[in-house]
Design goal:
Shape: globular
Distance between the termini: 50 Å
Radius of gyration: 20 Å
Helix content: 25-40%
Order of helices and strands: HEEHHEEHEEEEEEHHHHH
């Protein structure tokens, strides 16, 4: 079993090589936000290349917690996280890299026929192909293939083999949707559902805010099947609040931020939201 001191030693070595790192819990999930930052109350939402406005000293905001600062990595605030950590993760985009995560043998076979060779790291079921250069992250760009770069994290599994090469256009093209697959954006406000007295019950702030807070918590507490949890949570929110016109952009941003803090890409959040709306006929 890997000891916390070994994990931290690996993290410090990576940080010294200018690779931003963070600890992962069992299940390859990051540590959740601390109480002070819960619900992004600190204003440091993980939607920037770096951690941004939040100056919290604890392991917050998932990928945005990644750092190369040895003072932070060895600080008392991070000590408990290292004791609980099961692995080290890194922020590829922050290190100027892109990881093509090939999740099975079929995906690996596709990459060997399609993509330029580069540094390769073996994973439990497939391989990570690592290129020099950063780009937008995206999940499920094709069967068994995820792109991990900006606003994402990847588990550190060793240096691998081969020489890292420049990020090819063939990889960048994987996150570009074909025009035929793009659906026109639909507004959240569609049908106003009124209560018996003629007033929308969601106009009571506590009702709506409680629903959003519960949804955020459900996403934050997910330990596995994060993709599915995010979709089902979006579906539940839209089912309860999507027809009255009370959901605002701020509410949607809260939910997307919670999902991205669990490692979801902006594209997956958008797709999950659109799919949930379609399922409900909104």
């Amino acid at each position: 079993m890997t000891q916390p001191t070994d994990i931290r030693r690996v993290a410090l070595a990576l940080a010294a090589a200018d690779v931003p790192v963070l600890p992962l819990r069992a299940g390859k999930v990051p540590f959740g936000n601390c109480r002070a930052c819960k619900g992004n109350a600190c204003g440091g939402r993980p939607n920037m290349k770096n951690a941004g406005r939040c100056e919290c000293a604890s392991v917050c905001h998932a990928w945005a917690a990644a750092t190369t600062d040895p003072r932070i990595l060895t600080s008392p605030a991070w000590a408990s996280a290292w004791r609980e950590a099961a692995a080290v993760a890194y922020h590829p985009g922050g290190a100027g890299m892109t990881v093509v995560d090939l999740d099975d043998a079929a995906a690996v076979a596709w990459a060997r026929k399609t993509l330029p060779t580069t540094r390769t790291v073996a994973t439990t079921r497939g391989e990570h192909w690592i290129y020099r250069g950063a780009m937008q992250s995206a999940n499920a760009v094709r069967p068994g293939v995820d792109i991990k770069s900006l606003m994402s994290y990847a588990r550190w599994l060793g240096t691998g083999s081969g020489t890292m090469t420049d990020l090819p256009d063939a990889v960048r093209a994987l996150v570009v949707k074909k025009p035929s697959t793009v659906r026109p954006a639909r507004p959240v406000v569609t049908v106003r559902a009124l209560a018996r007295d003629g007033q929308c019950r969601h106009r009571t702030p506590a009702y709506l805010e409680r629903g959003i807070a519960m949804a955020e918590q459900r996403i934050t507490d997910a330990r596995s099947a994060v993709h599915t949890t995010v979709y089902r949570t979006f579906l539940a929110v839209l089912s309860a609040h999507g027809r009255c016109g009370c959901l605002t952009d701020a509410h949607v941003e809260q939910l997307f931020a919670a999902a991205q803090a669990k490692g979801e890409s902006p594209r997956h959040c958008t797709d999950a939201w659109a799919n949930a709306r379609t399922a409900l006929g909104l």
